[in-house]
Write a structure and sequence with these properties.
The complex is a heterodimer of chains A (291) and B (331). With 291 residues, chain A is an all-alpha fold. Chain A has helices at residues 2-32, 39-55, 60-87, 92-113, 139-161, 163-173, 175-180, 185-211, 217-232, 237-257, 265-277; strands spanning 129-132, 135-138. Chain A has a two-stranded antiparallel sheet. The longest helix of chain B has 32 residues, at 299-330. Chain B has 2 domains: 25-297, ABC transporter involved in vitamin B12 uptake, BtuC (Orthogonal Bundle), CATH 1.10.3470; 298-331.
């Protein structure tokens, strides 16, 4: 039982990070119908941004703040204006293909232009271990989990409690009515891209100490985030967190009790079961197929 | 127009036949490699370009074909048993993979097939008793055909060329048959296709199965070409690359895969010394291509034609308006 609990808690930490990446993914989807295949790379690039700023001697906090600004410009504004806006009218698949291309370009740009090695990244939390009823929990796992959950809830609160957030939801639900009601639609969509960029930097800050900064670190993270988003429900922000936690925990348990070699198949199996029985995801609302 | 097509086909056929005489061993090997990817992406072009099913798991079928041949030959049986077996296996697994496509579309389907690819790759990597795990299977011999040994790169090239032409002819025939029309109807508007009596259920499954069988044949040829297989060429990344090859060449254009495979396989092999930079440029090019030419490279002639036509039409309109105005002035 203690083993189980231990695996469960460390799974929660990983799952919260998946959830964070998945949340940005669902935000983009809701705001603009964009499926971002480069979501994992959107986490990888800020990790290198922060490393770059730290190489200039800046402390971690300042590097984080600067990376947030840079990410909002590059991964938010330029990404939206340069790729999503021109492709939006062609429907979903051209954006998917373009972001696949973007992911390849980002991954190999970092590999060729900076380094193909894995780089260590300073941890936010000191090395400390708590022992509760025989279950050991590291401070890093606990802190990662708490911070990630907090970020998800702050985003959620922003979306439901503030005027801007509600306007963004209105745009997501019905663009035309929103614009008739005087909401600045392009600006709201940009906010979604900006929030996605901020969440990506935060995810990078939390995930890189354990995963190390490497050009291909985004590949598996991006995949898990997609699966998490679909499992939880594509059109529901809380679903992303739920999906992330389910994937993180089940992966950890499967690695210990079934086979570590097939750990990566777990997200897939859950995903298959969910789309076969509830294609809109666990918390998602149903969308009718249109002619 | 028809004459130009015939002539250009004859010239390229001639080029393909004489090219190896002027190439070194590695060049011939690369050309064969390219042909194999043409076969594989032709299958994907059917699934994706003609039937409109977003499949991101094509490399898994490629791998199944390759491993089938390798395992069959390891067991001491003939390549000529392995090849059809691999294709048939892919066909049936393709039908099975088509089932999710009946329930979900576009991006969900892309993820379902991507997940399928991951699963197949995990089996290849982990089931050492069957696939040799990460060590792979080596010493896969090249086959014999009617007593001729295909062991040399040159002989194997001509063999692969022959298979490619056969597979292309089969696909050409298929696309011109009522089946081909049903596939495109399925892509353009599934609900209308269904109301017109196209059994979209079977055609969706078939488009997957036939596409997969093409990948299986390509995989079988691939195993014998490289003579050593391991899980690496059959990852999700490889599937994504095949998808991009089809889209870059022009999804739904018959010759799209020829161009796409050249950009996706031939160029990077030649530019191997700069692989990461090549992929960086390739990725960026895909982004730009989507923005300017979302239908792929082969849509350029169509685009020019459409432009010219629009220009002619507007000129004709202007002329007739002018004539009408003159007539009005005279009256």
């Amino acid at each position: 039982m203690t083993d189980f609990l231990q695996l469960f808690f460390s799974g929660l930490a990983t799952g919260a990070i998946y959830g964070l990446a998945a949340l940005g993914f669902t935000l983009l989807w809701q705001a603009s119908g964009t499926i971002n295949f480069a979501q994992g790379e959107f986490v990888m690039l800020p990790a290198f941004m922060m490393l770059g700023f730290m190489a200039f001697g800046l402390p971690l906090a300042a590097s984080f703040a600067l990376s947030v600004v840079l990410a909002v410009v590059v991964l938010g504004w330029i990404f939206k204006r340069g790729i999503v806006d021109p492709l939006f009218k062609f429907g979903m698949m051209p954006i998917v293909v373009a972001t696949i291309g973007l992911a390849i370009a980002m991954r190999n740009g970092v590999r060729a232009g900076y380094s193909a090695e894995a780089h260590a990244f300073p941890s936010l939390f000191p090395d400390q271990i708590y022992n509760v009823a025989g279950v050991t929990i590291t401070l890093a796992d606990l802190g990662t989990f708490v911070l990630a959950i907090a970020l998800v809830f702050v985003t959620q609160a922003f979306m439901t409690k503030t005027v801007t957030g509600r306007a963004m939801q209105a745009v997501a639900q019905n663009t035309e009515s929103a614009s008739v009601l005087g909401i600045n639609v392009p600006r709201m969509i940009f906010y979604a891209f900006a929030i996605n960029a901020v969440l990506a930097v935060a995810a990078a800050l939390l995930v890189t100490p354990t995963y190390l900064a490497k050009f291909d670190m985004g590949e598996s993270l991006g995949n898990k985030a997609f699966f998490a988003a679909i499992i939880g429900g594509f059109n529901n922000s809380r679903g992303a967190l739920l999906g992330g936690l389910i994937v993180g925990v089940c992966e950890n348990l499967a690695a210990a009790y079934i086979s570590p070699a097939y750990k990566d198949a777990v997200a897939l199996v859950i995903f298959m079961v969910v789309i076969l029985f509830k294609p809109q995801g666990l918390l998602g609302k149903k969308e009718e197929r249109k002619v | 127009m028809k004459k130009i097509t015939t002539i250009s086909i004859a010239i390229s056929a001639l080029l393909m036949i004489i090219a190896p005489q002027f190439l070194k061993n590695y060049g011939i090997y690369l050309l064969t490699y390219w042909l194999i990817f043409i076969i594989a992406t032709m299958g994907l072009n059917l699934t994706l370009g003609y039937a409109g099913q977003k499949s991101l798991g094509h490399a898994a079928f490629f791998g199944i074909g390759a491993y089938t041949v390798a395992i069959v030959m390891k067991a001491g049986l003939s390549f000529w048993l392995g090849l059809p077996l691999g294709a048939a296996l892919c066909f049936f697994i393709g039908i099975a993979l088509g089932f999710p496509a009946l329930r979900v579309q576009t991006i969900y389907l892309a993820f379902a097939t991507l997940g399928f690819n991951t699963a197949v790759w995990l089996v290849m990597r982990n089931e050492e008793w069957l696939t040799g795990g990460t060590f792979g299977i080596n010493n896969i011999a090249r086959p014999e055909l009617f007593g001729f040994s295909l062991a040399s790169n040159m002989a194997y090239y001509y063999f692969t060329l022959g298979v490619t032409v056969l597979m292309a002819a089969a696909l050409w025939g298929l696309l011109r048959s009522p089946w081909g029309k049903a596939f495109t109807a399925l892509r353009d508007n599934p609900i209308r296709a269904e109301s017109l009596g196209v059994d979209i259920r079977s055609y969706t499954l078939l488009s997957f199965a036939i596409g997969a069988a093409y990948a299986g044949v390509a995989g079988a040829l691939f195993a014998s070409l490289v003579e050593f297989i391991e899980p690496a060429p059959f990852t999700v990344g490889a599937s994504i690359m095949m998808y991009l090859m089809v889209v870059v060449g022009g999804a739904g254009y018959f010759l799209g895969p020829v161009l796409g495979a050249a950009v996706g396989v031939l160029l990077p092999e030649w530019l191997r010394f700069a692989q990461a930079w090549y992929l960086f440029v390739f990725g960026s090019a895909v982004v730009l291509l989507m923005i300017w030419l979302p239908d792929g490279l082969l849509s350029i002639p169509d685009r020019l034609k459409a432009k010219k036509q629009a220009k002619n039409e507007s000129a004709a309109r202007a002329a007739s308006a002018h004539a009408a105005a003159n007539k009005g002035a005279q009256a």
